[in-house]
Amino acid sequence: MTTTDTMDTRILEVPGAVLRYDIRGELGSGPYPALLLAGSPMDAGGFPTLAGHFTDRAVVTYDPRGTGRTERTDAAAECTPQQHADDLRRLIEALGVGPVDVFGSSGGAVNALALVAGDQGLVRTLVAHEPPSSQFLPDRDIIDAVCDDLRATYYASGMGRAMAKFIALVSLRGELPADYLDRPAPDPATFGLPAEDDGDRGDALVGLNIRTCTSYRHDIEALRAARTRIVLAVGEKSEGELAHRGGAALAVALGARAVRFPGDHDGFLGGEFGMHGEPDAFAAALRTALDG
């Protein structure tokens, strides 16, 4: 039996970045593979509650490039799922404990699917929770255009106005109407956000990842052929939202149905970032999905 009372933080140099990752428990001990919890752009700070439900195995969390404690050493304007997938590959190889299980959340699910499509035999089971993928959605062209507009707004006007557009996008239930971009932009004050531009342009969500993540085109044939067991998961309380729709559509493309997990897009949170999901029930569902 391992514990999550102690945490070993390590550094991994990858092309264009220096990653920080944390190991709870003892790698290679116990009957279960190590469990890697991957978000994007959420960093390791979103996973303490979920990690605490898996004290019977080693749990690994990390800060993706452009987030948290990780340092970028390149000058790229965006981060791509392919880059993140390569980072994940290098991280798993650095662990040196054979195939691991992976839980990918949001953009982390997109990145983990890109990793598994390469099929290096590094992942036993992948649970991909609510990947915000437009690929198989009927309104994908509008979604991609909205994400382009979000990024352009960030670089032109700053975080407040871009995040207001982001919140409006991910909160909408159902297909985006054809005139979505013709509608008045939401007021940042509606969401408690400032309208003033603070000059920062380093945000991982609306600056580095939003466009490349949502518009990423998954290699469905490669995913079907991969040795990894893939489970697509969606929230019981997020039906109709972009990430839920994207996950459900990807599951169908893979010849399956998405598994419904408790809560919404953030169902595993237990107070991190001031948000509360249904972490106990979520962890139970994740354990069932991993052990399949």
UniProtKB/TrEMBL annotation:
<keyword id="KW-0378">Hydrolase</keyword>
<dbReference type="InterPro" id="IPR029058">
    <property type="entry name" value="AB_hydrolase_fold"/>
</dbReference>
<dbReference type="InterPro" id="IPR000073">
    <property type="entry name" value="AB_hydrolase_1"/>
</dbReference>
<feature type="domain" description="AB hydrolase-1">
    <location>
        <begin position="40"/>
        <end position="157"/>
    </location>
</feature>
<protein>
    <submittedName>
        <fullName>Alpha/beta fold hydrolase</fullName>
    </submittedName>
</protein>
<dbReference type="Pfam" id="PF00561">
    <property type="entry name" value="Abhydrolase_1"/>
</dbReference>
<dbReference type="GO" id="GO:0016787">
    <property type="term" value="F:hydrolase activity"/>
</dbReference>
